[in-house]
Design a protein that fits this description.
It is a single chain. The protein is built from 7 helices and 6 strands. It is an alpha/beta fold. It has a single domain, classed as Rossmann fold. It has a 6-stranded parallel sheet, sandwiched between helices. Strand 4, helix 6 and strand 5 form a beta-alpha-beta unit. Helix 6 packs parallel to helix 7.
């Protein structure tokens, strides 16, 4: 993965073409295999996690396992998982069901506090680009307001070409910088569907954003339930 000499504290937001496409594994894998080998200091953050009845982020736990580190100092004070809700839904609904609100500014402040100590910070989102975070803010609104680059994760299952291209077109039309596209490998993935997705997304990038990265994320078997 190419880096820009002299750029410090770079934040990349990781979104998905859909939910359940492998963002968590892709985030940890990109950190470990594409950034850390260059000697870069890398952190990952889960901006908001839903569907978790515990107090610690399960997604950050996967990130650390893939990165080959036990924990980061920021994990211990909650900066890398600033919001966790029990119900598996959008952050807006999950927070409402607990009688709470997702404190977006607090979460962004946590991201910035982490990023101040690292060359790269990968911020994993929840679901896709138009997921409502609050009543007035979607993920797209957030990345535009924060001027974050975006990494799109797709998985190549049936229907994913449409979802991935819609996501890319929305980013392009919104003027959001695309960092790259990664296609994950899900258990039992249909090889023909996945390869068709890979070839289609490569064509789109050649035509619309040839500077953006394209990567394939392998199946990480030891992380499967």
């Amino acid at each position: 993965m190419k880096t820009r000499p002299g750029q410090q504290h770079r934040i990349i937001f990781v979104t998905g073409s859909d939910t359940g496409v492998g963002k968590t594994v892709a985030t940890g894998y990109i950190a470990r295999h594409f950034l850390m080998p260059s000697g870069l200091k890398v952190a990952t953050v889960k901006l908001v996690e839903t569907g978790n009845r515990g107090k610690r982020s399960q997604d950050v736990k996967v990130h650390r396992k893939l990165m080959g580190v036990k924990s980061l100092p920021e994990d211990k004070v909650g900066l890398t998982a600033p919001a966790i809700f029990r119900y598996p839904a959008s952050p807006l609904l999950a927070a409402q069901l607990e009688g709470k609100a997702f404190e977006l500014k607090q979460a962004v402040d946590a991201v910035n506090a982490v990023a101040a100590n690292y060359d790269y910070t990968l911020v994993e989102g929840a679901g896709g680009l138009l997921v409502p975070l609050t009543e007035t803010t979607t993920t797209l609104d957030l990345v535009r307001q924060c001027d974050w680059e975006v990494e799109v994760v797709a998985c190549g299952r049936l229907g994913d070409i449409n979802h991935a291209l819609l996501t890319l077109e929305v980013l392009k039309n919104a003027g959001v910088k695309l960092h790259g596209v990664a296609v994950s490998t899900l258990p039992g993935a249909n090889r023909r569907h996945r390869q068709d997705c890979i070839e289609t997304l490569r064509r789109w990038l050649r035509a619309h954003d040839p500077e953006a990265r394209f990567d394939e994320i392998p199946l990480v078997k030891d992380l499967l339930p």
